[in-house]
Amino acid sequence: MTPRNEARAYRIWALGNALKWECTQEEIADELGLHRQMVCRICKAKGWKTSGAVMGDPNRRGVDQVINSRFMQGRER
Question: What's the pTM value of the predicted model, to 2 decimals?
Answer without folding.
Answer: 0.69
